[in-house]
Every structure is written in C-alpha cells, then in structure tokens.
Amino acid sequence: MASYRGSFLSGRIGAALRLTLSVAVLALLWVWLDGATILRRLVAAQPGWVALAILGVQAQTIASAWRWRLTAEALGRPLRMGRAVREYYVAGLLNMTLPGGVAGDAARIARGRDADGWRAAAAPVVVERLAGQIAMWLLASLGLALSPLMLGAPVWVAVAGAVAAAGGAGGAVLGARRAGGGVRGLLHRAWVADGAWRAQVVLSPAIAASYVAVFILCARALGHELPLGAALTVVPLTLLAMTLPLSVGGWGLREGAAAALWPLAGLMAADGVAAAALYGLVCLAGALPGAMFLWSRPA
C-alpha cells in the first residue's frame, strides 16, 4: 500500500513538474517575443492551409496505425486495421493532452492487453514507436549533414550530423547485439524477417516526412514559405524536442526549440514559435476523433 501511494504521489509530482515546465517556457517566450503579436498571427492563420495540415494529421495517423498493425502481425498478434486506427487516435489525443508524451502509448498497451499479458501487448507498441523515433532522428541527422550546402552552416555542423547518424546507427547495432535474444528476435521479426523491411523502409521515413510536411503547412498558414534547407534542418530538430518526456504534449519544448533554431536558418524566432504553436493546435485538432473512442471498449 505504501509503495502504491508513493508511486501515485511520484506520478502526480512528475505531472505537475511537466505542466510547470510547459507553462514556464511558454510564459518566458510570451514576454521575450511579444506574445500578443504571436497570438494575433495565430488568429489570422489562413484556414485553407490549416485545413490541409489537419488532413495531413489524419493521413499520418492512419499510416502510423498501419505500421503498428504490420508490426503487431509480425510479432504474432493480429490487429485489425479499424481497431488500430481507432486506438491510434486515442493515443494521439492522450499524448497531446497529458504529461510525458507517452500516455497514449501506455493506453494502447493497457487497452490491448489480453490473456497473453502486458508484455505481449507492449512489444508491438514499443517497437512501432521506436521505429518512428529512429526515422525522425535519421531525418534530422541528414538535415544537419546537408546544412552547409543548404543553409551555409559551418562544416562542423555537417560533421556533427554525420557523426550523429553514424554513431546512432552503430549504437543501434551494438545495442541489438548486446540485448537479450528475446529483444533481438522481436526487432528481427518486426523489421526484417519475411520481407518486413520493405514496409518499414517505406512507411517509417514517409511518416517522419509527414510530420515535417504538417509543420510546413502550419508555417504556410501563417504566411511563411520555408525553404528546403529549413524544412530539412530546423523543422525535424524542432519536432524532436517534443519527444522529450518533460512537458505536456510537447508544449513549451517545441516552441522553445523553434525560437532557438529558426534564427540559424535566417528566420525570425517569433515566426518559429508561432508555427510551432499552430502545429500543436493542429495536432490536437487532428487527434480529436480519439475522443469518440476514448471510453469505448476496444473491439
């Protein structure tokens, strides 16, 4: 009982700290970059581009659900596409509204648990989420490696990107070798065996690119046409900030990263913050269908 109470309090404290961090960073940016002006830009966003961005969220949700379904089937847990889509909408809504950014994945596991236990339900979710994060990280590394050509960045930035890509690939291989046979087997079955690599090679980069595309549409809604260099460098890095489990729905971290990174591409920090904020709102709007399935029992 004491252990449960301690974990409960720890969870509440962690959630409060993440919420505090999000609010504090947003408040700092509001004061630093004239939040009233940014708010006016958001209100004046062009609805056509916003609608396209929301449609983009629907496409990436369906594609991500498809990747999850393929991963689950490769790991011996058949998953109907309709259910995968519904559960992914629920996960997206929870990830955007609850602290930590992983509540939706935990919900996918909890709602998919059956007689085989939580480990069997968790494996496809964890492996699918890992595939998405690796793809986004590789996209960001590629952008860094090409930044001297596209943005005139110093050569050391390209070297850093290449080292990050090589180090990450090497670390992944080394980690897979050192992992237990069960983990290696899961990754091999999900990503390699029986031609699974074909779908992974297409789906994961496409989904990562779709996140960038939605961000570009949000910037366009505010009247900013991002050059290719910015799209391949500062946008993936801005989005990666959301993966840190230190905020609520990525709020604050995403906007702070945009304020820090966009000037490196010759763009205004305030414009980056406005685009990042609109991206968060678009993702939340795109995930709202999850509310219809939140209280329903997975079929």
TrEMBL record:
It is a multi-pass membrane protein. GO terms for cellular component: plasma membrane. Pfam families: LPG_synthase_TM (PF03706). InterPro entries: L-PG_synthase/AglD (IPR022791). Keywords: Cell membrane, Membrane, Transmembrane, Transmembrane helix. The chain crosses the membrane at residues 12-33, 88-110, 130-149, 156-176, 196-218, 230-253, 273-295. It is found in: Cell membrane. This is Uncharacterized protein. It comes from Jannaschia rubra.
